[in-house]
Amino acid sequence: MGRGESKFSMEIKDIIEHLKHSLEQLRDDASVTQFTGGTFSAWKGNVRAILLNGLGNRANLLLYQFDMATRFLPMPESVVIPGYQEIDYEYIFEHKLPNVKTTLENIIWQLETFGEPYVPPKGEGNIPKAFIAHGPMSNSLESLRRFLTTLGIQPLVIEEEPSEGRSVNEQVEFHLEEADCAIVLGTADDKELKDGKLYPRRNVCIEIGRFQERFPNRIIYLLEEGTSLPANVNEKVHERFSQGSMDKAFIKTALELRAFGLLRALRIEKE
Fold first, then answer.
1. What is the C-alpha to C-alpha distance for residues 136 and 154, in angstroms, rounded to an integer?
2. Does the pTM of the predicted model rise above 0.70?
3. 156 to each of 68, 110, 112, how far by Cα in Å?
4. Class level of CATH domain 121-265
5. Confidence bin at 37 (pLDDT 50/70/90)
């Protein structure tokens, strides 16, 4: 890019403008955020069309972020499964809308900051993947997933990957095989009666052992404030976080991914 040239092509400027208009609709148009009526479906399709028509295959990473945020939205008004309580999908819809707004803001920020999305050249390989061991669904997991996607790393969250008939153990092994590194997201889930300390969910502790066999030098440990690791991994270097702030954890994650050789260096042209 030479001096005096515009930071973005007209194409990128137009895409940003259209996305900002869609964001305003989500903020201000009550019909878009209604659970019924089909307006949200039309809004969602329009955002996807903006990215696809403007960027083509360069939109893949941004579409992945958007599709993860809007996954299963909109949903049927209610579903009754024998033996289970009725699922309140309207509540889920309203609960997920703030994340949709945040994700679209993040996509706009990426386009404004970096311009055209990065597409690996032929022969460079697929997008790097990070297997995340975690407890219950939480704000920290959602934030980590968005952060990784922004960096160009595909987060592998087992519950959201197609199982194709595999058992739980087979599903874990299958995705461990395709992962390039692992991230332990240890949240305060289980209280040990003997010592009274809070530990990550048991499945997380089990997966740490698998990680140490598969990625001995490619594991990132993130631990919620007030949570302890099992004694056999307590000596590992980790970064603390809270559900309200993950800034230090994100810095730790980015530095480790760079050291693993998985994080592409981003260079921003000065105007």
1. 20
2. no
3. 12, 22, 27
4. alpha beta
5. low
C-alpha span between 133 and 223 (Å, rounded): 12
Burial of 254 (C-beta count, 10 Å sphere; 0-12/13-18/19+): middle
CA–CA dist 41, 45 (Å, integer): 6
How high is the pLDDT of residue 8?
Answer: 45
Q: Any bridge partners for residue 154, and if so which? A: 129
Sign of CA dihedral 61, 67, 68, 69: positive
Say whether pLDDT at 84 is over 70: no
Separation of alpha carbons 118 and 152, rounded Å: 8
What residues are paired with 198 via a beta bridge?
Answer: 191, 227
Distance CA 172, CA 213 (A): 14
pLDDT at residue 123 greater than cutoff 50: no
Q: Rounded mean pLDDT of the chain?
A: 79
Domains of the chain by residue range: 9-119, 121-265
| Token duo for residue 232 | 């056999």
Angle at the Cα of 64 from the Cα atoms of 256 and 178, rounded to 5 degrees: 55
- Higher model confidence: residue 190 or residue 43? 43
| Structure tokens belonging to residue 168 | 């739980």
Using alpha carbons, select from 65, 46, 68 the residue that is nearest to residue 160: 68
Provide the β-strand partners of residue 221. 184
